[in-house]
């Protein structure tokens, strides 16, 4: 269904006919399309698997709890890159991950406008439109293109944390810093080898649950921004082409002060 919405000629018509609302900040948007796509996905999956649980971005925004249990759980971001969607900036994705016992079994990221289907199943590799994916294998941080996100936060603490992290990387220097406006597609660039690392502070599980397994199955490394084991509920992630690059990013990127503010104000 998301494919139909993203690919039909009336993509702009769908957008024009839809209301845009603000969520946690003036840069955190939601449209009726986000909500419709999530409802369609959940109802279609629930018809086949009525016992399964769901964590959906817009269901959580409507008040549902964010609780990852051992039960089979679908983690859904119906439109990752809603600001891009509203502005017709051509990087918009549907992200769907499936976990059992809190372990991701498979992930799908469909970059709608590019018509690129990224997917991976645990132990069975990662693919883009059916072709196998492999990370760049880069180990020298000075030879890296690093992807991150600007985020929707506009308070001084979040902005100073985000900009100082980018400046520290640029001063290393790394060869490039990029941000596409969709965490899921950002992270998939690491799986393709087109980028060598991705880091993000403040994202939610639904933004990156699918792209995380895609990077891992493409031979990449995923960890917390402090170098500890990755936890998709922690709102901090580094995905990289190698442990050397991941640890190099962890030494430069700081999160604590920003996250302290997060833990007080957000789910
Ligand atoms: O709200 P959606 O699902 O569009 O997710 C995006 C976040 O809103 C951004 O803050 C964040 O920076 C990323 O762009 C993330 O993809
Ligand atoms: Mg998202
Ligand atoms: Mg979204």
UniProtKB/TrEMBL annotation:
A matching Pfam family: Inositol_P
Catalytic class of the enzyme: hydrolase
Presence of keyword Mitochondrion: no
UniProtKB keywords: Hydrolase, Magnesium, Metal-binding
EC number(s) stated in the UniProt entry for this protein: 3.1.3.25
UniProt cross-references to CDD domains, sorted A to Z: IMPase (cd01639)
Signal sequence region: none
GO biological process assignments: inositol biosynthetic process; phosphatidylinositol phosphate biosynthetic process; signal transduction
Family the UniProt entry places it in: Belongs to the inositol monophosphatase superfamily.
Record PANTHER family: INOSITOL MONOPHOSPHATASE, INOSITOL-1-MONOPHOSPHATASE
Name of the molecule in the record: Inositol-1-monophosphatase
Organism of derivation: Gouania willdenowi
């Amino acid at each position: 269904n998301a494919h139909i919405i993203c690919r039909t000629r009336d993509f702009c018509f769908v957008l024009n006919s839809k209301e845009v609302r603000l969520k946690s900040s003036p840069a955190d948007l939601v449209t009726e399309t986000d909500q419709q796509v999530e409802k369609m996905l959940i109802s279609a999956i629930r018809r086949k698997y009525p016992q399964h649980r769901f964590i959906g971005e817009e269901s959580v925004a409507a008040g549902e709890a964010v609780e990852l249990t051992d039960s089979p759980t679908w983690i859904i971001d119906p439109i990752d890159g809603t600001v891009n969607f509203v502005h017709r900036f051509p990087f918009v994705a549907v992200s769907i991950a499936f976990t059992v016992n809190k372990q991701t079994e498979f992930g799908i990221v469909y970059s709608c406008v590019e018509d690129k289907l990224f997917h991976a199943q645990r132990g069975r590799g990662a693919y883009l439109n059916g072709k196998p994916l492999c990370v760049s294998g880069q180990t020298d941080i000075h030879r890296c293109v690093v992807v991150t996100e600007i985020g929707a936060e506009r308070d001084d603490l979040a902005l100073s944390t985000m900009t100082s992290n980018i400046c520290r990387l640029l001063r290393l220097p790394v060869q490039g810093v990029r941000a596409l406006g969709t965490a899921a597609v950002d992270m998939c660039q690491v799986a393709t080898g087109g980028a060598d690392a991705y880091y993000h502070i403040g994202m939610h599980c639904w933004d990156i649950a699918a792209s995380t397994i895609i990077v891992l199955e493409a031979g990449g490394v995923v960890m917390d921004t402090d170098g500890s084991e990755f936890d998709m509920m922690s709102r901090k992630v580094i995905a990289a082409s190698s442990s050397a690059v991941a640890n190099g990013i962890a030494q430069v990127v700081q999160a604590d002060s920003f996250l302290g503010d997060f833990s007080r104000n957000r789910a």
